[in-house]
Design brief:
Elements (H helix, E strand, L loop, with lengths): L1 E9 L11 H18 L3 E7 L5 H13 L5 E8 L10 E5 L3 H15 L3 E6 L4 H5 L4 E8 L3 H9 L1 H13 L21 H8 L7 E4 L2 E4 L1 H13 L5 E4 L2 E4 L8 H12 L7 E2 L3 E2 L2 H19 L3 H6 L11 H4 L1 H6 L9 H19 L35 H12 L6 H4 L16 H12 L1 H14 L5 H4 L7 H15 L21
Parallel strand pairs: 1-2, 1-3, 3-6, 4-5
Antiparallel strand pairs: 4-6, 7-8, 7-9, 9-10, 11-12
């Protein structure tokens, strides 16, 4: 079977938006369905319009692509819209000649995603259905402005795509085991980073780790690898000089629980972000924990934290705090003095940007409407940062090496609450350090937050929503971070009650 499947609208001719973006999500569906169809033996070609600048050009370009191919079926993937609502709205498939296929596809999507089945709908007024020369259907996957539909779509993305592939191919997909996010290997030790760690040691050395002697240059390299990957306080003595390792996280499990509760009880936890809705539980709690981690870094004079907490540079071209100066001023947030207040206000902006870029989803894949698929340009994670932003500061790569060496401070378990990740979400592009960066952003959300904080202070034009000032600043977020700051500054005592239980993924606040 030969199929051509395309996404509706285009990179510069955007479709509907709300809790979901039609163009971005349609591209994800097209690409995943194509993979599944090819696994079933179908000959599949896909098309995304990255060129057109008008609706008329866009429609003609899509249809021309389909008609220029040899195929048995044309499929167009769209998302519907009506009005912003929390009610479920459903899925439907439009047709001119393919009534049976449209109805079966709609039912299959509804069953897979838990949607209302609106069925196959005859439409004689759509350019795609009227102009393609082969049998065609147009899928309206769900409604982008229904929060209920958006949640079902994210939760059941893989099943929805499988249902589409099975129905239009007439074949069943064998059950495939879920793809687990791959483990992140620490970066290989080189002579350069070995010197950075152990202090310009060359040749045969005598090394003592917590009183145990290890000798020789080859063993020394292994010792350094052990040192940077161990949690807890480790003392390494090299030729009589002591080097103290730092634990990868400054927070205990109890402290993480306490901070998470501060966040979940805050007003910002229930705020409906513009065009995005209420943040996932994990995002609210996770970014509060990330702020505490960065604050403790600031207290320890970590280079990355110092750069994030620097005073407003008043350089609009590079510094997001300068670019947002009037917005911060309107809320009474001054960033004229380096230190914790400025760091806290940066986190207020980070919280708004994360909701805009990924709706608070740590595993968010790249923007499918963009052509940046090299390892250094592919976007990933909460903030859709790409590795080419590392030029902002040496502290960027330093942070990456620190978090790659140990996942103890990544807080994936916190950020993952109330978030569902599909197989395609975990996909990364290219190879080498850029690939490792994409994966680290998704599996180590605190790194994604802190690296974005650096980029906002020195390369703010990296983020479209910042350039357009679409990231919201909320005083409720500042109040939450202030409460976390007070907790970190105050005495932290063990409480008699047991640790707070985490909500399972998918649960909601009452």
């Amino acid at each position: 079977m030969r199929i051509v499947i395309s996404s509706g609208h285009g990179k510069y001719v955007r479709g509907a938006s709300g809790y979901l973006d039609e163009v971005d999500e349609a591209r994800k569906v097209v690409d995943e369905v194509a993979v599944l169809l090819r696994d079933l033996g179908a000959n599949v070609e896909t098309f995304h319009d990255d060129v057109s600048t008008s609706q008329n050009e866009n429609l003609n370009r899509i249809v021309d692509y389909h008609n220029a191919r040899t195929r048995d079926l044309d499929v167009s993937v769209h998302f519907n819209a009506y009005e912003t609502t929390s009610k479920p709205m459903g899925t439907e498939v439009l047709y001119v000649t393919q009534s049976d296929l449209a109805s079966r596809t709609s039912t299959a999507i509804a069953d897979a995603g838990g949607f209302i089945d609106r069925g196959g709908k005859y439409r004689s007024d759509l350019f795609f259905l009227n102009s393609t020369e082969m049998p065609a259907i147009l899928i309206e996957t769900c409604f982008v402005d229904s929060s209920a539909d958006a949640e079902l779509y994210r939760e059941h993305f893989d099943a929805i795509c499988a249902a589409i592939a099975e129905t239009i191919s007439g074949q069943d997909i064998e059950d495939r085991p879920p793809i687990e996010p791959p483990e992140i290997e620490p970066p290989p030790l080189t002579e350069e980073n070995r010197v950075d760690i152990v202090g310009h040691v060359r040749g045969d050395v005598t090394v003592i780790i917590n009183g145990q002697h290890v000798q020789g240059p080859e063993r020394c390299i292994n010792v350094v690898a052990l040192k940077i990957s161990m949690s807890g306080d480790v003392v390494v003595s090299i030729n009589g000089e002591d080097f103290h390792s730092k634990p990868p996280s400054n927070l205990t499990a109890r402290q993480v629980d306490d901070i998470s509760k501060i966040a979940s009880d805050s007003a910002i936890a229930d705020y409906a972000w513009r065009d995005r809705g209420v943040a996932p539980d994990g995002y609210v709690e996770g970014i509060a924990v990330a702020f505490a981690e960065t604050y403790l870094k600031l207290k320890a004079q970590h280079p990355a934290a110092i750069e994030m907490a620097a005073a407003n540079t008043h350089d609009d071209d590079v510094d997001a705090l300068s670019w947002y100066y009037s917005n911060f001023t309107a809320l009474g947030m001054s960033n004229e003095t380096a230190g914790i207040d400025t760091l806290r206000h940066l986190y207020v902006l980070l919280m708004g940007l994360g909701m805009r870029e990924s709706s608070g989803r740590h595993c968010e894949g790249r923007d499918m409407s963009a052509s940046n698929t090299t390892s250094d340009t592919a976007e990933a994670g909460l903030y859709q940062t790409s590795y080419n932003a590392h030029v902002v500061s040496d502290a960027f790569d330093q942070l990456m090496d620190e978090y790659a060496a140990s996942d103890a401070g990544c807080r994936l378990d916190v950020f993952a609450q109330d978030v569902s990740c599909s197989d395609s979400d975990w996909s990364c592009y290219g190879s080498g350090r850029g690939y490792d960066f994409q994966l680290l952003c998704k599996t180590c959300p605190v790194f994604a937050v802190e690296s974005c904080g650096l980029v906002l202070r020195g390369l703010r034009q990296h983020y479209g929503p910042i350039n357009r000032k679409e990231a919201e600043l909320r005083s409720e977020a500042d109040e939450m971070f202030a409460a976390v700051q007070a907790y970190v500054d105050g005495p932290i005592a063990e409480k008699k009650n047991g640790p707070r239980r985490r909500r399972p993924s998918g649960s909601k606040r009452a």
